[in-house]
Amino acid sequence: MGIKTREDYLAALQALRPNVYKFGELIEDVTTHPATKRTVESHALNYDAANDPELADMYTTVSTFTGEKILRWNSMMQNADDLIANMKMKRQNYRRTGSCTGAVCCGWNAQNVMWAITHDIDEEFGTNYQERLKDWILSAQSNGLAVAGAMTDAKGNRGLKPSQQPDPDTNVRVVEVRDDGIVIRGAKVMICGTAASHEIFVLPGGIYREPDQDFAVACVVPRDIEGLTIVEATHPSDRRELEETADVEVPNTGITQGWLLFEDVFVPNERVFMCKEWKYTSKVIQFFTANYRACIGACVAGQGDVMLGTSVLMARANGLSAKKFANKLVDMSVNNQITYGLGVGACAIGFQHPSGSFFADPLTAHTNKVMVATLPYEVKRLTQDIGGGIAETGCMPSYKDLANPEYGPLLQKYLKAGDCSGETRFKAARLAEWLTVGAGVPGCMHGGGSPDGAKLVIRFATPMEEYVDYAKKIMNIEEDVPEPEKPKRK
């Protein structure tokens, strides 16, 4: 049965070997520890939605392999509608959690990317990678897994290729090939949702050439596999989340980023889908970023929807009509729709790989990434603008102070502004703060890669000379107009 419940999901996490650390502490149970329980809750809400009659169509689908009902994030994406369904689910996730749910996102994208890549590798080399991948996908569908995707390496010196690094472990690599599997070592960093995942899909982190073939590896590992240590990153509201009043100070949801330290991890053959086939790493990056950068438009739009709602709430809590900010609220909505609409457009004009996997149009998807690295920051600015000074970080006392019997009633008295309590205004302001400068901020700038990287793709994907021909034909220009040669230095 692929439609697992919240209880199934949490029980499966609790059964894993503890290997997640934060603040120097081994976290015995990620579902209850203050440092990880919020990202787990964000993901658990996906399982709730899959079992909710009103949301099930968005969060479930039918397996292309078995015809059985499965969780959508374990499915194959084989047409534009599948990609757009991905976007709809992500926007709804942000509306329900205010934050990212990476373990029902990146691993899903990775399996679809590797379905195409394994098809091509098998065709050239006679390997059986795709058969292995199909077996794993069937298992993921049957068990309703949450799977993080690990692409970004520590990288080391950015001016050097992986094989040139003084310490080759800065990029995950194959250090041994055995008859029954491979051994990998290195680090994947800033990986979304690892604490909330059952398994981790490892992909090559760059485009490699033959000297870097050891780094061309794709595989799936259980999150608790021997030899893997996960260190959770910190963010500005971490300390507050560990306080006993955290449930009032911050939402009950959120995301964490993991640093994955692989120390001679053995991966059996049935979980290996690429091993040193370096020339296919360019396709991995191309396909992964196209879908990811199209669909992330839904993520930032969904959080933008919450910021818009928070802004209306803050205006009213401050004693002002939201109509006073109508123009700013409209600007926020426009920005949300631009990233969402661009993403949908990239999906709608995408293409199908011979394997059946469907990918967004690269030019439009990478254009969307540039917008994602720009427009959400304006939405955040407007959220703070409308909320007033109280909505910015460092402007409010803690909830412990509000609850203090000696002076708390005075704080609550002076916090009251509109037709709601001082405590409600406090909560609305905390949400605005969390969404704009705290843990609720998604990876707008570098999530899914840098905007500069996206601009490079746009540069090479834009058919400049074809556009020149359009201009020449309109004006009947037959003369060749070449690029001027660079003047020679004397």
Text of the CATH class of the largest domain: Mainly Beta
The amount of helix comes to: 40-55%
Beta-strand proportion? 5-15%
The tally of domains stands at 2
Describe the structure.
- This protein is an alpha+beta fold and 490 residues long.
- The protein has two domains: 6-278, Butyryl-CoA Dehydrogenase, subunit A, domain 2; 283-461, Up-down Bundle (Butyryl-CoA Dehydrogenase, subunit A, domain 3).
- Helix content is 45%, strand content 14%.
- It has a six-stranded mixed β-sheet, with no helix packed on it.
- Strand 6 (173-178) and strand 7 form a beta hairpin.
- Helix 5 packs antiparallel against helix 9, helix 9 (281-317) packs parallel to helix 11 and helix 10 packs antiparallel against helix 11 (362-372).
Brief account:
By secondary structure, the chain is of the alpha+beta class. It is built from 17 helices and 14 strands.
For the structure shown, list the relevant keywords.
490 residues; Butyryl-CoA Dehydrogenase, subunit A, domain 3; 6-stranded mixed sheet; globular; Butyryl-CoA Dehydrogenase, subunit A, domain 2; 45% helix
